């Protein structure tokens, strides 16, 4: 099979790099999870032929059959629209054979001690090197969130295997951390604030510029349902060294987690002094140095990234005998926030044991089916430990949660009405839009005691209070 060389397009007048209309011959993405799948669908949409590799056979079979396997707005449409451009396979070695760019997007879950488990990244590196051919030229890109030094480790694994095989391939390396949010994954991939590339290799930088030019230049026609945001400046390609790029990712997530914990800490004070945290956040956010984002008080942060990345950053620091007290405090405040939710329920109901508590929202936020580190599921487990009966509901992830926690002794209720009828309290853990427009007066009138703990400050507080509901928000 012919090995395509990296193309050398004429420099584009604005980027100085690749011409927008120059697709790569093949991009291979390893890991078809939230990051890999969304990235692959977008790159295929931009015109690059994409091979998506995953070791999970069932996942690959489902993707081949047209099942999107994760819940993400717009993904089913984009995957079906890009079918002709996309191949799904479990065969990593074959999948990299003709690739110009190979993107590692496998998971890096936390180990028991909190540091990131990079074994899947190293396994991918090993198999990449086993698949590369004599004379092949390619760029290996680490998109997974990885601790300091992992990019270097990927290079050394690939060098070692190529050497052992006696294969002469010209491999370039870059770190390219991902900043997409679940539920907004396609939007964030098409319209990022910045693209960070960590590499000291001009060839790697040039290939990534070529890969991302349509995004950097915003030259593509937006896919249906994913309009270009108004007045958003063009994304910046920030080129830096690999170690700084690795740290940009962790420091960004830690900073956002600190910001949420900060507003949750202020929310606790608001409850004491009678202020409204939404108003405090609104006033703070008007200062452009602070910014309005990530100041939504609530049950605390969860998800597949913040909890693990906050721990991983501390683990990196600990390796160097350094501490990160602000980052550590963000985690402590997050735990306290959950405990505070339970205290408030207990204060309202006096006794939790034997009470019927409805918990609405099992995913860690709306717009995703991801249950990793979900505040709602954490609160459910704490309620069960305290002897409460739980009725759980989620508009998209009910069966997923049930499958994940088959031993939890609770009612998985298929409707909000069923969850609230006869309940002693309801806790809103995830602000799914489906919940916000319900007839809350009617729903709460079906409850045995009308206690509402709005963990996302999303329900009609005044309306409920006026109707005699014991409504509690967060920080107001
Ligand atoms: N989920 C997010 O919103 C997000 C955003 C930015 C960055 N990240 C980071 O990106 C990485 C991937 O996250 P994710 O949420 O997409 O993970 P995920 O768990 O959803 O998907 C990872 C996929 O990789 C596959 N895989 C694992 N090892 C493999 C191997 N050796 N070969 C082939 N496939 C393999 C798994 O089967 C799985 O399908 C992580 O490092 C994460 O921290 C995630
Ligand atoms: O004002 C806020 C904003 C968020 N959250 C919570 O914070 C968590 C994370 O939310 P969000 O950041 O929207 O979701 P993720 O999809 O986890 O995205 C984060 O983690 C990704 C993985 O690293 C990064 O790529 C993204 O940039 C980063 O925002 C969720 O539990 C939210 O409910 C709040 O409580 N208040």
Automatic annotation (TrEMBL):
Region feature (Disordered): 1-20
Concerning InterPro entries, the annotation shows:
6-PGluconate_DH-like_C_sf, NAD(P)-bd_dom_sf, UDP-Glc/GDP-Man, UDP-Glc/GDP-Man_DH_C, UDP-Glc/GDP-Man_DH_C_sf, UDP-Glc/GDP-Man_DH_dimer, UDP-Glc/GDP-Man_DH_N, UDPglc_DH_bac
Q: What is its EC number?
A: 1.1.1.22
Taking every annotated instance into account, which residue ranges of this chain make up the domain UDP-glucose/GDP-mannose dehydrogenase C-terminal? 358-461
Q: What class of enzyme is it?
A: oxidoreductase
Q: Which PANTHER family match?
A: UDP-GLUCOSE 6-DEHYDROGENASE TUAD
The protein here is known as UDP-glucose 6-dehydrogenase
User: Which species does this protein come from?
Assistant: Deinococcus radiotolerans
């Amino acid at each position: 099979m012919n090995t395509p060389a990296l193309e050398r397009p004429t420099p584009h007048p604005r980027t100085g790099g690749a011409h927008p209309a120059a697709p790569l011959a093949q991009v291979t993405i390893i890991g078809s999870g939230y990051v890999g799948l969304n990235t692959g669908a977008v790159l295929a949409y931009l015109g690059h032929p994409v091979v998506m590799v995953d070791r999970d056979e069932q996942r690959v079979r489902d993707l081949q059959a047209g099942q999107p396997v994760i819940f993400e707005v717009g993904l089913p449409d984009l995957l079906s629209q890009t079918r002709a451009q996309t191949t799904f396979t479990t065969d990593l070695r074959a999948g990299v054979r003709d690739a110009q760019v190979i993107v590692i997007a496998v998971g890096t879950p936390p180990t028991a001690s909190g540091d990131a488990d990079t074994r899947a990244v190293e396994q991918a590196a090993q198999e990449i090197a086993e698949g590369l051919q004599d004379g092949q030229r390619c760029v290996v890109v680490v998109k997974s969130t990885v601790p300091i030094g992992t990019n270097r480790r990927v290079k050394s694994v690939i060098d070692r295997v190529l050497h052992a095989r006696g294969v002469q391939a010209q491999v370039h390396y870059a770190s390219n951390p991902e900043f997409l949010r679940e539920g907004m994954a396609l939007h964030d991939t098409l319209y990022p604030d910045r693209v960070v590339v960590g590499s000291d290799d001009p060839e790697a930088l040039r290939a990534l510029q070529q890969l991302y030019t349509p995004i950097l230049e915003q030259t593509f026609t937006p896919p249906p349902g994913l309009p270009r945001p108004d007045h958003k400046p063009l994304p910046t390609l920030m080129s830096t060294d690999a170690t700084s790029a690795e740290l940009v990712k962790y420091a960004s997530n830690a900073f956002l987690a600190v910001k949420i914990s900060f507003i949750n800490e202020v929310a606790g004070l608001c409850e004491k002094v009678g202020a409204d945290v939404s108003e405090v956040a609104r006033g703070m956010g008007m200062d452009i140095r602070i910014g309005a984002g990530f100041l939504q008080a609530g049950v605390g942060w969860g998800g597949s990234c913040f909890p693990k990345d906050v721990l991983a950053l501390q683990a990196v620091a600990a390796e160097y005998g350094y501490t990160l007290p602000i980052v550590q405090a963000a985690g402590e405040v997050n735990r306290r926030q959950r405990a505070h939710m339970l205290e408030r329920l207990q204060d309202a109901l006096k006794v939790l044991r034997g009470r019927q508590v409805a918990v609405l929202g099992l995913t860690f936020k709306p717009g995703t089916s991801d249950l990793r580190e979900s505040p709602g599921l954490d609160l459910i487990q704490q309620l069960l430990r305290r002897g409460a009966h739980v009725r759980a509901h989620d508009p998209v992830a009910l069966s997923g949660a049930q499958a994940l926690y088959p031993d939890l002794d609770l009612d998985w209720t298929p409707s909000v009405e069923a969850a609230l009828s006869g309940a002693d309290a309801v806790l809103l853990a995830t602000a799914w839009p489906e919940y916000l427009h319900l007839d809350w007066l009617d729903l709460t009138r079906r409850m045995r005691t009308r206690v509402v703990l709005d963990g996302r400050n999303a329900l009609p507080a005044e309306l409920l209070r006026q109707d005699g509901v014991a409504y509690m928000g967060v920080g107001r």
